[in-house]
Amino acid sequence: MAKRPMPEPPGDGASGSRTLIERAYTELRDDIIEGRLGPDEKLRVEHLKARYGVSAGTLREAITRLVSDALVMAEGQRGFRVAPIAVDDLENLTRLRIHIEIDALRQSIRSGDPAWRERLQKAYDELSAIEQPIRPEDRHRWEFLNNRYHEALIAAGASPWTYRILRLLSRHGERYRRYAMKLPAATRDVHAEHAEIFELAMSGQDARAALALEAHIRATPDVLMRALRDGVPVFGVRP
Fold first, then answer.
1. Does position 101 have pLDDT exceeding 90, yes or no?
2. Are the C-beta atoms of residues 4 and 44 closer than 8 Å to each other?
3. What architecture does CATH give domain 85-238?
4. What is the percentage of the chain residues whose pLDDT exceeds 90?
5. What is the pTM of this model?
6. What would you report as the CA-atom Rg of the chain, rounded to the nearest whole angstrom?
């Protein structure tokens, strides 16, 4: 589907160039996560520049940012390709996320003050309002509020580097969540999982909250693994 061209700004100011790169990056990233640009798909700059309405140079800058995010692979002189997705990769992402996020959660619960509880309550309430159940048209909004809820959980114990790493892992995890949420057997009660973590965190039960969070994080790879074992086709995911 053709994109609406993004008009080049007047002049050649650096701020205008950065804006175009940012917009192209955001649209490319969304297309990768949504599967409109599929795993392993070749990214041909000369073809895509018309789709995104930017110059080849601007598009290459945006793609280079996606290489840094590990959503795109550079192939030397052969150009660029969308990063593959595979169960082994998801398991590695999951282990790393669990290691970092659970430690941050336990520190946050131990250090949490009234301001932290207020922030967590607000994030939980906003997320709860749209995930009972999660409607397809609300998925983008849900992803935003879900990330904000998870960040609120660890806000009293996370460093800036913790946030940076977890945000990168979340970008990759979103690709897998998209597939898992569309599976016929995907019958998780995500709201109940979030509610349990929230209640344990607010009551200061850091060990139990950590266990609930670990089970919550592991749920997506478990759903995909069960589907693959049962022979259910999961587009784009390598067994």
1. yes
2. no
3. Up-down Bundle (1.20)
4. 50
5. 0.78
6. 20
Task: Enumerate residues 6+ apart whose C-beta is below 8 A from 111.
Answer: 156, 157
DSSP codes joined into one string, the chain: -PPPP-PPPSS--HHHHHHHHHHHHHHHHHHHHHTSS-TT-EE-HHHHHHHHTS-HHHHHHHHHHHHHTTSEEE-GGG-EEEPPEEHHHHHHHHHHHHHHHHHHHHHHHHH--HHHHHHHHHHHHHHHTTBTTB-GGGHHHHHHHHHHHHHHHTTTT--HHHHHHHHHHHHHHHHHHHHHHHSTT----HHHHHHHHHHHHHTT-HHHHHHHHHHHHHHHHHHHHHHHHTT---TTEE-
> Locate tokens 């959660």: which residue?
105
The domain segmentation of the chain, as residue ranges, is 14-82, 85-238
- Of these ranges, 6-10, 20-24, 131-135, 194-198, the one predicted with the greatest mean pLDDT is 194-198
Calpha distance 239→234 (Å, rounded): 9
Tokens of 224: 């995909």
For 165-194, letters b (16+ CB in 10 Å) and e give bbebbbbbbbbbbebbbebeebebebeebb
Provide CB contacts within 8 A for 215, sequence distance 6+. Answer: 193
Count Cα atoms within 13 angstroms, Cβ side, for 89: 16
Q: Looking at the domain that runs over 14-82, which CATH code has it been given?
A: 1.10.10.10
Report the half-sphere exposure of 107 (CA within 13 A, side-chain side).
Answer: 13
